[in-house]
Every structure is written in C-alpha cells, then in structure tokens.
Amino acid sequence: MLSSFTRALKGFREAIPVLLGIILLLGLFETFISEKIIASIFTGNLIKDTLLGSLVGSISAGTPISSYIIGGELLKNHVNLFAVTAFIVAWVTVGIVQLPGEALILGKRFAITRNILSFILSIFVSIATVMTLMILK
Predict the structure, then answer these.
(1) 78, 28: one domain
(2) What does the pLDDT read at residue 11?
(3) How far apart are CA 57 and CA 83, in angstroms?
(4) To 10 degrees, what angle do helices 81-93 and 64-76 make?
(5) Residue 19: helix, strand or coil by DSSP?
(6) Are 88 and 116 within one domain?
(7) What is the pLDDT along the chain (137 residues), one digit of tens a residue?
(8) Three-state SS for 63?
(9) Cα separation of 65 and 71, whole Å?
(10) Which domain holds residue 1?
C-alpha cells in the first residue's frame, strides 16, 4: 500500500508542472483572445460548433486533464456544451499530432482509419452525451 501511495505521489508531482503550464497558457489565452472573438467563432449553431470543437480537439495534444481545464474555461466564456464535449472527446481519442508515430508502430492504414472513426464518433458521442443530460434535467 505504501508503494502505491508513493507512486501516486510521484505521479502527482510530475503532473504539477503540466498543470501550471496549462494555467499560465489559459491566462495568456484570456488576455489575448476576448470573449467576443470566442463568441464569433462558436456561434451557437449545434452542427458547426460541434464540428469545430471536434476539429480543435483533434489537432490539440496533451493530457486528458488538460482538456477538462480548457473545457471549463470555454464553458465560462459561454461556448456551447456540444462544442466543449466534442472538444474533450476528440482531444482524448483523436491524435493528429501523434499520427506519424502511431502509423509507424501500428501501421498507416490502421492509424488513419482509427483517427477518422474517432473524429466522427467524437461528434456523435458529444451530441448523445449532451442530449442525455438534457433529458435527465
């Protein structure tokens, strides 16, 4: 049990610099990108916002916890929940940045197919998730 605690503490210690970096980047983001710019990009259109959220999440790279923090900031800036959910799902499942390495290890055809399917499914999963939340409310 002590070794598990030690490993968890070590993992947390290694995550702190990443989290601090994200917080600093979000500060820069809020300074240079106003709420008006975000509102002009994410218009409230269900389809457009969901596609855009999936696209941005697909080309971004980082740990899943980073996507949750960024998603929270997007929600604070009145970005549609469909877009934020699509962003988080795509961030975690699609890996455009990692595609060359994945293709090298797992094969080009598999890597491309997996990323395309993950992108498409990120859209459907985000819509299904948010609609389920709406039904439960």
Answers:
(1) no
(2) 81
(3) 10
(4) 170
(5) helix
(6) yes
(7) 678 888 888 888 887 887 787 777 767 766 776 667 777 788 888 899 999 999 988 988 777 888 888 889 889 888 999 999 999 999 999 988 888 888 888 899 999 999 999 999 999 999 999 999 999 98
(8) coil
(9) 10
(10) 1-32
Helices 99-106/108-136 angle, 10° precision: 120
17 with 72, same domain: the answer is no
Task: Read off the pTM.
Answer: 0.75
Do 66 and 109 share a structural domain?
Answer: yes
Contact 51, 43 (CB under 8 A): no
Contacts for 106 with CB less than 8 Å, ≥ 6 apart: 114
What residues have CB less than 8 Å from 53, skipping those under 6 apart?
A: 42, 79, 80, 82, 83, 84, 85, 86, 87, 90, 126
Q: d(Cα 10, Cα 14) in Å, to the nearest integer?
A: 6
